[in-house]
Write a structure and sequence with these properties.
The complex is a heterodimer of chains A (about 280) and B (about 50). By secondary structure, chain A is mainly α. Chain A is built from 16 helices and no strands. In chain A, helix 3 packs antiparallel against helix 4. With about 50 residues, chain B is mostly helical. Helix content of chain B is about 75%, strand content about 0%. Chain B is elongated. The N and C termini of chain B lie far apart (about 50 Å). Classes of the chains: A mainly alpha (about 280), B mainly alpha (about 50).
């Protein structure tokens, strides 16, 4: 059991790493401080992956959604919304657990040993609702309503909140471009402070950004209960030992709710089950 | 909701998603996505 547990946990990490490399394989961008400008960027990737990352081959769905919503010509992003509904309806938050580079970064950070790791805490459940508020306010409403004289809205989530953009785009691009270094101001400091906070919290808490902030996770979470790829607990096989709930770092109890909106399909519950009751 | 029912709902939702995405492509949203994605997003990286 122990061997299987260890092997399968790293199997997922290998897939996460492979996917992150595959979708960020414009390596020359990292050395030249430029971004990929090809036609693949017509397509969105399923995870949170800044399109201003020098290696990015695809478009970030949350950035793309704000760009279209904030465009005076469109106001609503059917293309990106449809794509997210498609992915969500097929796999739910599997995309978070297996195909999101920023989720991978947080998971690897959480492996760093620390005096005390934080699991569930008072206010945790309420704080998990914050990602829905951020989705509604920063990704949809503000870009739609708060527009400039030309009727264009800014990507407010990317601008004020997203630490993935700072990590994947902000730091490497600024390192390579002197002109950008001269343009740095309070916003860059703010975003880097958020990134540092996210990094530190990720060491303490498992995937804090995914749990409390990520609007993409908020969208996919709605589809978890109806997604085609889903978990099922065989009640007649389950011995009620509670090992699955204990193994879940997203604080879900799979026996009570195998397709809970917070489940990222990491498979920790399946691996921990001594009787293979979770399918 | 049984497993089969919810799978059916999931498939229906996925098809709806494809149709909605198709409508977005039809009305030209992809060019906005591409335009944003191939230029460095100053807001995203914390400059603009």
């Amino acid at each position: 059991m122990d061997k299987r547990r260890k092997t399968n946990g790293w199997k997922r990490h290998r897939i996460q790493i492979l996917w992150a490399l595959l979708t960020n394989s414009y390596l020359v961008g990292f050395f030249q401080g430029k971004i990929y400008k090809g036609k693949l960027k017509n397509l969105c990737v399923p995870g949170l992956n800044c399109y201003s990352c020098p290696g990015a081959l695809g478009a970030c769905p949350i950035g793309a959604m704000q760009a279209v919503v904030g465009n005076w010509n469109f106001q609503f992003a059917f293309y990106v919304s449809g794509f997210l509904v498609f992915v969500g309806a097929l796999v739910g938050r599997f995309a978070c657990g297996w195909l999101c580079p920023f989720g991978l970064v947080q998971e690897l950070l959480h492996k760093i040993p620390f005096i005390k790791k934080i699991g569930a805490f008072r206010g945790d459940k309420l704080l998990r609702k914050l990602k829905y508020v951020i989705l509604l306010v920063f990704v949809i409403l503000l870009p739609m309503v708060l527009v400039d004289v030309l009727g264009q809205g800014a990507p407010y989530f990317c601008k004020f909140i997203c630490p993935a953009g700072t990590l994947e785009g902000g730091i490497p691009l600024v390192l390579w471009n002197e002109s950008m270094q001269g343009a740095l101001g309070w916003l860059y400091v703010w975003k880097n402070a958020l990134l540092v906070a996210t990094i530190f919290l990720s060491i303490l808490i498992y995937r804090p950004f995914c749990k409390y902030i990520c609007p993409l996770g908020a969208i996919y979470s709605v589809f978890n209960p109806i997604a085609v790829f889903r978990y099922q607990v065989e009640k007649e096989t389950c011995i009620g030992c509670g090992a699955c709930a204990k193994a879940c770092k997203m604080q879900v109890n799979p026996v009570e709710s195998p397709n809970h909106p917070e489940c990222i399909r990491c498979g920790a519950c399946k691996r921990s089950c001594p009787v293979d009751a979770i399918r | 909701m049984s497993r089969r029912q919810s799978s059916r709902t999931g498939i229906c939702a996925a098809v709806c998603g494809l149709l909605v995405a198709g409508y977005g492509i039809y009305r030209g949203e992809v060019s906005v996505v591409l335009g944003k994605a191939i230029n460095i997003c100053m807001e995203c990286i914390g400059i603009g």
